[in-house]
């Protein structure tokens, strides 16, 4: 198992290199002049040229790419923001706490609300509970997060005055509306996937056998059905975490949360290349680690997969 | 009976004494509270942008202009319509390009470091080296003459430019700057009355009045340096609707970033006041001379656009119709222009010029920097010109891309909706798009090469007398290379905590100067 994890970690090096080269190339061909964004409309051609030279933007693609890869992978330095003049790494770390808080809370909501909804729907297949659950799931998938966010603000902040409209100054209260708005689609997706996965399992022979043995519905459901339906659910949770990290961009902008998403969107607008590239790289790393974690959890949930991992070791 | 009366009288007398003491106390407290009425304890200001780095030598941006005067002081500042000394006590000309600047000899920063002429030199040198303040490129040198006097030498100066340059660079002491671990990015030490006590990037910046502001003579404190409040919190809210919601729930007390569409939510509403101040930014239309070489075609477009429609649809009717590509906020704007005719909508004239140009059903690309207001403006233009058979293809770009194509050598556009403003003079606004010397291709932004236009512009920049200003204005109007459309109004809404709102020349709130 350790060998497998080590191997996966080693595989992440070329993955990160690939991400770095890809995002660098995208930013390279992306039109827009960072010098113009920095100096504004009053800058003359000479001043702009001097700024471009200072930022190293006049160098050929290969030189700039080499410099970027050396700086990132040899010196472990994500560079300095053009716009803010501060370290990209510290900027990302400063903002990561908010993004992670939102993503983790959303994830928790997705798992602890979406999964039971899906189980209820599956166990009451074609019944009233199933239809209500699936209707809610359909609504959840269909509503855009930004619209839901504004509606929640109107109801709970402007009209009822229970929660703050934006910012992070009010502690946990500041995160309630953003998390609810951001997780709504995730809850819906989780419910639908759990339902279909559970439906597949509860029609299996071994579940019918368990029922025939006279086991209680609860035991059949939680001891026999759910563990076998978990693999696709875990996959959805892992992918969902990545989507949550990316999806916070909209929510962070609406709720004025100073997270990584807002840092990156501001950077894209200002053509602040180091921030965009650093942000993508760090999010890519986090996503890769989550995927690794998902694979490890597979092994603990499904003994067949664990045997596969260990079997590889035995073969070698 | 006598005893009873005496006892009663004593009681009444005690009661009177007690009442008189209570009344006296109430009077004293009332007077004290009245005396303190102008001094607010705390105010929260909503701003749309995050400065990201509060260091003194950063480039100007949406977030930075909102906090600039609360954070830093400069040698001079613009107070109302005139420039006044802030740190500078005297500015003495030596010759046309050399000036001696004397600063007050008792200035101290928030850490108690005395500010001297060498700090001024340090700040200008560092700001120039950063390359973030391009206006300072004309400062040739800053030389220290004595502890409190330094000599500025410039490579070139146009009318009014000296004051702008002395207002461009925030001043800090070298000792404090070098002691800072992050070049004051998060914890600046300046000469301002307010010190940053907390900065949560992208969320809030909190300032507290240090209570030891260096300038003790109130008459010498400019509006930008006033300190009528103990604590200022800037809350960063980029979303327009959320800014409105924050003001409605009173999470913020004041904002200058309320969209025209929402300002009515606060007008004549209990607990709120609205102040509308003309902005220094004017929207204008630039013709690409490669396409619009024929003056008749330019004039056809100019007369075919109804600026009143634009004001109505893009600004809910709250905008000033432009009579130039700048507006009356500038001291060198000639008031008489407001009374003269300036391409007011005239369908007959538009048709007449179009016929003279000999084009039928043309299609032009209109490039603009995408925003809600700009989209409303270009849609109105598109709709107006459709009546004359002129098709307008809208080309929206984000800020960076718009900047790129605006100055590119290859024309990517036929018409361009642009905007311009300046902290100083109207000539600076003209210069942005019409001074050929600043462009790589040696033409104006609209690809015009007109020697008379250039010489009139240079004359106005050298001496912004009403005659020179009018000469350029009339020529530009006649040639119709660019036409002014509308000048927006800054919508400033606040709760009743703020009794009178004050803004700087850029329309940004000066929370320290507001009355509470």
How would you describe the overall organization of this protein?
The complex is a heterodimer of chains A (316) and B (516). Chain A is mainly α. Chain A has a domain at 98-259: MetI-like (MetI-like fold, Orthogonal Bundle). Chain A contains 13 helices and no strands. Chain A has helices spanning 2-29, 34-39, 45-55, 61-74, 88-123, 128-142, 145-159, 173-202, 205-212, 217-254, 260-270, 273-301, 303-315. In chain A, α1 (2-29) packs antiparallel against α12 (273-301) and α10 packs parallel to α11. The longest helix of chain A has 38 residues, at 217-254. In chain A, 38% of the residues are buried. Chain B is α+β, with helices and mostly antiparallel strands. Chain B has two domains: 44-253, D-Maltodextrin-Binding Protein, domain 2; 279-489, Dipeptide-binding Protein, Domain 3 (Dipeptide-binding Protein, domain 3, Roll). In chain B, 33% of the residues lie in helices and 23% in strands. Chain B has helices at residues 2-35, 62-71, 117-130, 161-168, 174-179, 240-248, 295-304, 307-315, 347-357, 372-386, 399-406, 426-434, 451-462, 466-479, and strands at residues 40-47, 76-79, 82-85, 88-95, 98-103, 139-146, 149-154, 194-200, 204-209, 229-236, 254-255, 272-287, 319-321, 363-369, 391-397, 415-420, 482-495. In chain B, strands 1, 8, 9, 10, 11, 12, 13, 14, 15, 16 and 17 form an eleven-stranded mixed sheet that branches. In chain B, β4 and β5 form a beta hairpin. The radius of gyration of chain B is 28 Å and the shape is globular. The termini of chain B are far apart. Mean pLDDT of chain B is 89; it is low at 29-37. At the A-B interface, α2, α3, α5, α7 and α11 of A face α6 and α11 of B.
């Amino acid at each position: 198992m350790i060998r497998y994890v080590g191997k996966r970690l080693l595989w992440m090096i070329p993955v990160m290199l690939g991400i770095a080269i890809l995002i660098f190339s995208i930013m390279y061909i992306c039109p827009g002049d960072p010098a113009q964004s920095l100096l504004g409309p009053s800058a003359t051609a000479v001043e702009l040229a001097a700024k471009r030279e200072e930022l190293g933007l006049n160098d050929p693609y290969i030189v700039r790419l080499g410099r970027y890869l050396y700086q990132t992978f040899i010196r472990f330095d994500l560079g300095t923001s053009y716009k803010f003049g501060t370290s990209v790494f510290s900027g990302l770390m400063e903002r990561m706490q908010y993004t992670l808080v939102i993503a983790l809370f959303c994830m928790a909501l997705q798992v602890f609300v979406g999964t039971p909804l899906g189980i209820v729907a599956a166990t009451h297949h074609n019944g009233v509970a199933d239809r209500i659950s699936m209707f809610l799931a359909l609504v959840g998938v269909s509503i855009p997060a930004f619209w839901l966010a504004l509606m929640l603000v109107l109801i709970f902040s402007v009209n009822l005055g229970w929660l703050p409209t934006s910012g992070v100054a009010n502690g946990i209260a500041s995160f309630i509306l953003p998390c609810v708005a951001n997780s709504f689609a995730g809850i819906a997706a989780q419910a639908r996937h759990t339902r279909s996965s559970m439906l597949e399992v509860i029609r299996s022979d071994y579940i019918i056998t368990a029922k025939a043995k006279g086991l209680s519905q609860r035991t059949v459901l939680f001891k026999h059905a759910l563990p076998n339906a978990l693999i696709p659910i875990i996959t959805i949770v892992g992918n969902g975490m990545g989507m949550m990290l990316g999806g916070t961009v909209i929510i962070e902008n609406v709720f004025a949360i100073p997270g990584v998403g807002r840092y990156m969107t501001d950077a894209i607008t200002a053509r602040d290349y180091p921030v965009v590239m650093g942000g993508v790289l760090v999010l890519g790393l986090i996503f890769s680690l989550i995927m690794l974690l998902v694979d490890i959890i597979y092994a603990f949930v499904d003994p067949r997969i664990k045997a596969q991992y260990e079997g590889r070791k035995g073969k070698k | 009976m006598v005893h009873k009366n005496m006892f009663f009288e004593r009681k009444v007398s005690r009661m009177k004494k007690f009442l008189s003491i209570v009344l006296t106390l109430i009077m004293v407290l009332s007077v004290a509270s009245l005396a303190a009425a102008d001094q607010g304890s705390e105010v929260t200001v909503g701003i749309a942008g995050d400065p990201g780095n509060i260091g003194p030598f950063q480039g100007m941006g949406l977030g930075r202009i909102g906090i600039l005067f609360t954070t830093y002081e400069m040698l001079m500042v613009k107070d109302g319509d005139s420039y006044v000394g802030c740190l500078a006590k005297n500015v003495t000309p030596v010759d046309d390009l050399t000036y001696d600047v004397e600063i007050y000899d008792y200035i101290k920063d928030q850490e108690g470091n005395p500010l001297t002429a060498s700090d001024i030199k340090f700040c200008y040198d560092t700001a120039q080296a950063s390359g973030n303040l391009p206006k300072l490129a004309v400062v040739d040198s800053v030389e220290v003459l004595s502890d409190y006097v330094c000599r500025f030498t410039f490579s070139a100066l146009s009318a009014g430019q000296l004051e702008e340059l002395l207002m461009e660079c925030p001043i800090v002491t070298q000792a404090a700057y070098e002691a800072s671990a992050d070049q004051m990015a998060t914890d600046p030490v300046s000469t301002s009355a307010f010190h940053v006590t907390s900065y949560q990037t992208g969320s809030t910046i909190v300032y507290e009045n240090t209570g030891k502001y260096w300038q003790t003579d109130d008459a010498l404190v400019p509006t930008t340096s006033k300190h009528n409040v103990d604590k200022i919190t800037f809350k960063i809210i980029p979303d327009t609707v959320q800014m409105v919601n924050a003001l409605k729930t009173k999470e913020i007390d004041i904002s200058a970033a309320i969209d025209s569409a929402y300002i009515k939510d606060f007008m004549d509403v209990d607990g709120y006041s609205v102040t509308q101040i003309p902005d220094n930014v004017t929207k204008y239309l630039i013709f690409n001379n490669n396409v619009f070489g024929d003056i008749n075609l330019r004039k056809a477009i100019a007369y075919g656009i109804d600026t009143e429609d634009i004001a109505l649809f893009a600004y809910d009717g709250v905008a000033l119709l432009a009579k130039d590509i700048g507006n009356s906020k500038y001291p060198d704007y000639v008031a008489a222009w407001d009374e003269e005719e300036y391409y007011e909508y005239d369908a007959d004239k538009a048709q007449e010029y179009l016929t003279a140009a000999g084009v039928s059903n043309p299609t032009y690309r209109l490039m603009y920097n995408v925003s809600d207001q700009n989209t409303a403006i270009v849609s109105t233009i598109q709709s107006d010109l459709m009546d004359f058979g002129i098709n307008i293809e809208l080309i929206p770009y984000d800020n960076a891309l718009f900047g790129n194509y605006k100055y590119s050598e290859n024309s990517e556009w036929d018409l361009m909706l642009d905007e311009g403003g300046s902290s100083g003079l109207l000539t600076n606004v003209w210069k942005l798009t019409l001074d050929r010397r600043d462009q790589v291709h040696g033409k104006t932004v609209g690809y015009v090469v007109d020697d008379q236009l250039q010489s009139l512009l240079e004359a106005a920049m050298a001496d912004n007398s009403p005659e020179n200003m009018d000469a350029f204005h009339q020529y530009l109007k006649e040639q119709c290379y660019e036409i002014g459309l509308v000048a927006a109004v800054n919508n400033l809404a606040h709760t009743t905590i703020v009794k009178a709102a004050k803004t700087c020349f850029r329309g940004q709130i000066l929370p320290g100067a507001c009355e509470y």
